Amino acid sequence: MNDLRELYQDLIFDHYRQPRNYGPLEHANRKAEGYNPLCGDKISLAMIVKDGVISDIRFEGVGCAISTASASLMTESLKGKDEGEALNMLKDFQALVTGVAVPDAMGKLTVLAGVQAFPQRVKCATLAWHTMQAALKNTTEPVSTE
Amino acid sequence: MNAHTHSSLESDIKNHLNVQRWRHDFPILQTRLYGKTLVYLDNAATTQKPYTVMEAENHYYRYDNANVHRGIHTLSQRATEAFEYARVALQHLINAQYAHEIIFVRGTTEAINLVAQSYGRSRFKAGDEIIVSGMEHHSNIVPWQMLCKQVGAILRVIPVDDAGELDRNTYDALLCQRTKLVAITHVSNTLGTINPVKRMIDAAHAHHIPVLLDGAQAIAHLPVDVQDLDCDFYAFSGHKLYGPTGIGVLYGKSALLDDMPPYQGGGDMISSVSFEATTYNKLPYKFEAGTPNIAGVVGVGAAANYLNSIGFDAIVGHEQALLRYATELISEIPGLRIIGNASNKTGILSFVLQGLHPHDIGTFLDRQGIAVRTGHHCTMPLMERFGVPATVRASFALYNTISEVDKLAEAIYQVKEVFK
Ligand SMILES: Cc1ncc(COP(=O)(O)O)c(C=O)c1O
Fold it and tell me: What does the pLDDT read at residue A141?
């Protein structure tokens, strides 16, 4: 049960129940759809990127607690970052949730470290991040975690 | 105590003793996970295996292993006998008229692909129609879509109503001169619905349309009699009837199979080969190219004998009692919605909980030692129909108990508490 508590921390519940930056984004110039066919989670991500910097980011969709909280936390931590920083954070985040490393300066995102005890849930946690990567490339094909 | 309650108490006790005995046949049920005894409720995905199946495979490899239908030496003869003995066990399981109507394949999926590519591809033309239903597993949708692309045929779909039953009137209206095949599931893997297949087959036959039944979810939970049903093809997987993975059966009526071209070419499926002409072997070998999964066949034969030794009266009685009990108990949970309320069901319970994603529920239950399936169950069109991205599915087998159902319900209350 301890690894369950590690996974479902209060901050996760908080972001699951009240996702931040949720809803449509007007004037977005970067968009992508993400889909996890295994659990049916869907996410639409929209960003405004100006001079290489993410000035605004919002998401919509249905998902489990892990994927929703991860998306919500991601939007908070990416606002104001430039594209290179965002992609580096994606790498760090992947390392964190797969248990490969504990990168520093992850801020609130470290709350998702508990995912590493649940390999089946890594895809839930990374769905938003993969979608962000696709959005930066402005990929129109939906990304899939499969 | 009056006579009635007395006799029902007696049957409860007998039932309990039966289940405890059956449980001893399945060593994996002793597994402990996270300090709890495993509660395995993912039987629609695959069932656990009794000793007798494992021993049959083991015995085959230890004492009889050789290639079948090839050698004149003793082991080859023994292997061939074990192989053909299993075919007869499966013939009896579904009451096929002939043993050569039992074609060994990898599973339900391959059986359906075989019919699509051999039967369908050689006969169907542009504008022909194939009827499936809205509750099909992807493996009874995609092979037909592939065939439709190849020959220009069209897929028609029988809709599913709110209770999870097929719309009878639409089905009757879909049957027409253009219809070349009806391919429907006997039992839905997501809803548990037992479709009225006998009536549906009669209706199709009135238009001279053959019917394929996907029996993956029926074979271990209902008595299946292909002659009584009069279905033209019946497909099922060994691993869902307490047998091994990688082996399954396509049953086909002899006359139909005889007329069909082979599915794959190779050894065993020929009578003679020269570079000018090849004569195909007779049934069933025409459809069994190459060295088959001999150990798998021996294992699934043992599984068929195991089911037979218990008998479907006992199995159906027990699983229906579990379903009734679980449905009642789980319906009481506030915010819980059961998906699939057909009047005739096998022991499959799909549900969603308000405000809770199936994946989170699944992870929580797993840490209580309870194995359920969460997701779309390879029935994405059906999920769309019920407006849910996924469900939690508990599916019962003969070794599940009332106390396991209690544990499931208790864990659902707990997960609700945690997520409150
Ligand atoms: C109704 C139904 N049809 C077909 C299949 C496919 O069976 P298999 O994967 O063994 O080929 C399944 C199993 O998941 C099923 O439940």
Answer: 63
Assess whether B110 and B70 both reside in one domain: yes
- Exposed, middle or buried: residue A23 (CB in 10 Å: 0-12, 13-18, 19+)? exposed
Out of A38, A40, A121, closest to residue B383 by CB: A40
Say if the Cβ atoms of B359 and A42 lie within 8 Å: no
Active site residues of B: 378
Whether B146 and B216 share a structural domain: yes
- pTM value? 0.93
Q: Is the CB of B139 under 6 A from ligand 1?
A: yes
Report the C-alpha gap between B234 and A3 in whole angstroms.
45
Per the structure, how many domains does chain B have?
Answer: 2
Q: Is the pLDDT of residue B93 over 90?
A: yes
Predicted complex ipTM: 0.85
Say whether the peptide bond before residue B284 is cis (omega within 30 degrees of 0): yes
| Domain end (from B246, B275, B309) | B309
Q: Assess whether the C-beta atom of B118 lies below 6 angstroms from ligand 1.
A: no
Give the mean pLDDT of B186-202. 98
Structural domains of chain A in order of their starting residue, each with its CATH number: 2-144 (3.90.1010.10)
Contacts of B388 in chain A (CB under 8 A): 40
Residue B1 has pLDDT above 90, yes or no: no
CB contact under 8 A, B367 and A120: no
Domain boundary among B309, B328, B352: B309
